[in-house]
Amino acid sequence: MPCIPRKIIEHKLGVDPACKPVKQRKRLFDPGRSLIIETEVDKLLIARLIREVLYPTWLCNPVHVTKPDSSWQMCQDFTNLNKACPKDSYPYPRIDTVVDSFVGFYILHFLDAFKVYHQIYMARKDEEKTSFITDRSTYYYSTMSFGFKNTGATYQRLVNKTFKSRIGRNMEVYIDDMVVKSRTYEEILEDLRETFETLRSIQMRLNPKKYTFGVPSKKFLGFIVSHRRIEANPEKVQAIINMKTPTSVKEVQRLTGRMAALNRFLSKSAERGLLFF
């Protein structure tokens, strides 16, 4: 799978040299999960996203994450490796500032990167540290993968650098969420042409199944954005309506957490929230 050139961006772990490498013991999985692991490994090998490795100093195990459709996805348990990596303090955009910026833009175009993290190479000196073990062999990642610490910061650094002349003008980007915004129908073609030329220049690939072009509003970062204002996400409102009356501290905490996501849409939310305590 082609990736963004190394001269543009690489993911660097920055492992603390004082931390000793950790080799996790190989875990046992039932036949069904083992088959999922080996099937996913075959796909990654074909796409050249992983390679076999000999004598790794760091070693972790696969884990299974449940997807929204209840199927399983293979990830890696990078707990030990992540503990040895410092936090990347690169700043993320303020969500409230981003969603407020759509006021006055009547046509919106939503884009989604294809296998977003796998498009960024690992720094060569860090590749071997990403090693994991299966029933068949040991492998390392040649690209960034889900589960590494600081992947969001690396991706935000990439998009800020790539779209620096356009963010706020006719585009907004929050990690891998990209929106092109046009004020008039006459501006649409130019805004999209500029976007795709920029993406082509860094060899970033998009997921055609998740395109949405020319809509007046859509969900973005948990809000409904449009040219008029932002609106509360109906799904979050309905989730609160469907809740049973809280009968424990944990359930009250769950309610206040859901209410917090709607604070900006509620008058005197802080005062009214005191009733929960």
From TrEMBL:
Occurrences of domain Reverse transcriptase (ranges): 66-225
UniProt-listed InterPro entries: DNA/RNA_pol_sf, Rev_trsase/Diguanyl_cyclase, RNA-dir_DNA_polymerase, RT_dom
Cited PANTHER family: REVERSE TRANSCRIPTASE DOMAIN-CONTAINING PROTEIN (PTHR24559:SF444), TRANSPOSON TY3-I GAG-POL POLYPROTEIN (PTHR24559)
Protein's recorded name: Reverse transcriptase domain-containing protein
